[in-house]
Amino acid sequence: MPFFTVVEFTTPNGATLSGFSHDAGPGALFVRTLTPAREGTRLTLKVLLAGQRAPCTAEATVAWSNPPLPQGVFRSSVGMGLRLEHMDPVLTQQFVRFVPRGLGFPAPGSPRASGF
Question: Is the pLDDT of residue 49 over 70?
Answer without folding.
Answer: yes
